[in-house]
Design brief:
The chain is 72% helix and 2% strand. It has one domain: Ferritin. Helix 1 packs across helix 3. The protein has a two-stranded parallel ribbon with strand order 1-2. By secondary structure, the chain is an all-alpha fold.
């Protein structure tokens, strides 16, 4: 880290915020690659609608990665956007579904969004004490991520409000329950 951070923060605070944002950057990089994987591997009825629904989300998440990286740099740290950084920061398993149906992928992606949103909310909570500017950035991201998860869940929900992947805690389990 350089010898400066943004005015009003100590170097120690700047480092902690940058570390939190680095994990978020790695999450976003992993998520946009996962979504693109789904885009390439989804098949079956409703293929084109889901194929086209995912690409705008890929672009939004890539933008979130850029915003997180630029905030890290503004704090005086060096953002790490490499595959190695994703693996180093990863506390989750790699996406486990290959070529599969629309319903199977959406059920698995719903679980991915659960993890991403839960982690983002924890970071937002921690940033409440440290940096409201970085917190605001992530609040905006979380709102859009939650909206996209709603789009995904609309495909998985039946008329009584039950999700096809309800109670599943693995991507493969969620995918199998939705096929």
């Amino acid at each position: 880290m350089t010898q400066f951070t943004v005015p009003g923060l100590s170097e120690q605070q700047g480092r902690e915020i940058a570390d939190l944002l680095q994990k978020q950057l790695s999450t976003y990089n992993d998520l946009h690659l996962t979504l693109k994987h789904v885009h390439w591997n989804v098949v079956g009825p409703n293929f084109i609608g889901v194929h086209e629904m995912i690409d705008p989300q890929v672009e939004l998440v890539r933008g979130y990665a850029d915003e997180a990286a630029e905030r890290i740099a503004a704090l005086g740290a060096s953002p790490q956007g490499t595959p190695g950084a994703i693996v180093k920061d990863r506390t989750w398993d790699d996406y486990s579904v290959g070529r599969d149906t629309v319903q199977a992928h959406l059920a698995a992606v719903d679980l991915v969004y659960n993890g991403v949103i839960e982690d983002t909310r924890k970071t937002i909570e921690r940033l409440e004490e440290l940096d409201l500017v970085s917190q605001d950035l992530l609040i905006g991201h979380a709102a859009e991520l939650e909206k996209f998860q709603w789009f995904v869940r609309a495909h998985l929900e039946n008329s009584s409000g039950q999700l096809a992947n309800e109670g599943k805690d693995t991507e493969k389990g969620a995918a199998a329950s939705a096929r």
